[in-house]
Amino acid sequence: MRLFLGTILFILMGAGNIHAEMVAVAKNLADIRSSPSEVVSTILFQVPRYYPLSSMESRDNFLKVTDYLGNSGWIRKDSVDDTRTVVVNIAGRANVRSGPGDGNRIVFKAHDGVCFKVLAEKDDWLQVEHETGVTGWIFKGLVWGN
Q1: Which residues, in sequence order, are bridge partners of residue 138?
Q2: What is the pTM of this model?
C-alpha cells in the first residue's frame, strides 16, 4: 500500500513540474502532423505564420503542440520560434485600434483565428502586427497566446 501511495505521490509531484511552452509558427505555412515523423504521419492541418501553439513535449525534431481550439499534433522544431504571438479567440470580429484603449480609432477588424506578432504591451492592451505589416492595438481578453 505504501508503495502504491508513494507512486501516486511521485506522479502528482512530477505533474506539477510540467509546464507548457508557447511557440509561434515562423514560416509562411507549417504542417501539424499525426505523429513526430514526416515519413509515417499524415498532415492533420496547416497553420499560418505567427500562429501561437502550446508545446509540452519534444521528440527528436518535433514538438507536440496544441492550439487555441484544442487541436493537437506534431510540428517540426525548425518551423517555430519563441516570437510572442496571439490569435483572435472570439466569435465575430475584434476591433484593432490606433492606440491602447476603447477611445482610440478602429484601424481594422480581425476575425476569429487571425494571428498577430506582439510588439508591445500596455495595461490590458497589446500592440500587434499582422504578417501583412498592418499594426494596431487589441484588448488582451480577445486573444489567446503568449
Answers
A1: 126
A2: 0.84
> Tens digit of pLDDT for each residue in 23-53?
999 999 999 999 999 999 999 999 999 999 9
Instruction: Say if residue 8's pLDDT is above 60.
Output: no
- Asked whether this chain's domains 18-83 and 86-145 adopt the same fold, the reply is yes
Rounded to an integer, what is the distance from CA 144 to the centroid of its chain? Answer: 7
Number of Cβ atoms within 10 Å of the Cβ of 146: 16
Predicted confidence band of residue 19 (pLDDT cuts 50, 70, 90): low
Domain ranges of the chain: 18-83, 86-145
- For 94-107, b where at least 16 C-beta lie within 10 A, e where not — what string? bbbbeebeeeeeeb
CB atoms inside a 10 Å sphere around CB 75? 24
Q: Output b/e per residue, 32-54; b: 16+ Cβ within 10 A.
A: bbeebeeeebeeeeebebbbbbb
Task: Tell me the CA end-to-end span of the chain in Å, nearest whole number.
Answer: 43
* Angstrom distance (rounded) from CA 145 to CA 133: 20
Instruction: Tell me if the domain spanning 18-83 has CATH number 2.30.30.40.
Output: yes
CATH for 86-145? Answer: 2.30.30.40
